[in-house]
Known about the structure:
Elements: H1 17-38, H2 42-55, H3 61-72, H4 75-88, H5 94-108, E1 112-118, E2 124-127, E3 130-134, E4 141-143, E5 146-154, E6 157-166, E7 171-176, E8 179-180, E9 197-199, E10 205-207, H6 213-255, E11 257-258, E12 261-262, H7 277-311, H8 319-337
Parallel strand pairs: 1-7
Antiparallel strand pairs: 1-4, 2-3, 2-5, 5-6, 6-8, 9-10, 11-12
Helix pairs in contact: 1-2, 2-3, 3-4, 4-5, 6-7, 7-8
Amino acid sequence: MTAVLLLFSTPRVSRAASDDDARATAKAKLVEGGDLLKQGEYAPALSRFQEAYDLVKSPKIQYNFGLAYMGLGRKADAVEAFEKFLAEALDANPDLRANAERHRSTLSQQVGTLVVECDTDGAEISVDGRSRGVTPLAAPIRLDPGPHQLVVEKAGVAPFAEKVTAVGGRRATVQAHLSIAPPPVAEPAAPPPVITPTPSLDGTSEPATPPSPQARARALERKLAWGSGALAVVSLGFGIAERLIASGKFQDFNSKTTTYGKCDADDRVRAHGGEGCDDLLSAGRSAQTRSTIGLIAGGALGVASGLLFYLSRPEGTGASSTSASARTFTCVAELAAHAGLVCAARF
């Protein structure tokens, strides 16, 4: 692909120095963009062409836009650029116009066209987040082949959105229906809470007082305390059971007789003394590890349960509640220190 730089013809009239500077800068941008285009650096070349166009709105630069868009694979944009060049740059070089006509004809067969018909005028149309005008559109929208997101929206109206797939050389039509968005419905105010009167000791009716946040918090803490206590019992029971299993495995290991004598727990002894010794020793050690984990977890859960029971005690609790909490801590401490003991605490 050969980049063609478009130079501006300067009428033989006096111009302001600022205009001359702008045209000189734009020409330098075009030269730089042309060099980048030859090197296949299409994105930087497009940037230089845009900078030149911002300085001097010459329709001839649309031809350079078209070449850069072709290199970037933006075929729909390239077609539009070549069409602007052919429609506005009537005094351009005939060879350039012929090349633009040829590129436009070829690319038009490779892009899809989208017609948007809308029942509301003045709605903005955007494709893939890019605005393409307002309804009704004077011309179809050209799109590169592939999926695209179409959105038609207008203030005060619910937007229309649909995915469309463009196919090269084909035309698609979308009917966009916009409906007036219903006004927001105010939610009805919540009715005041109904307080059920409860009879007092003297026969009169008094309104029931809802529980305070502190009371609800204490109730939650009490439930968590019971749950932690139950888990502590399960964990301790598991630890004790595994300790018994480990004890049995070690007893079998110590009493087992093999062809080489008795089992030996020394890891340096091959197979720990004979067939079956390895399995017994490994099973005993595993059960012992699980027992330790269960007892530690049970102790921790027991401590947590005791703390929660202590925190959830009713306000103004006397010595009875304090003694119950103390019994809880004492029980937990005994369980954590002496695995295998059963504590029947009363809460």
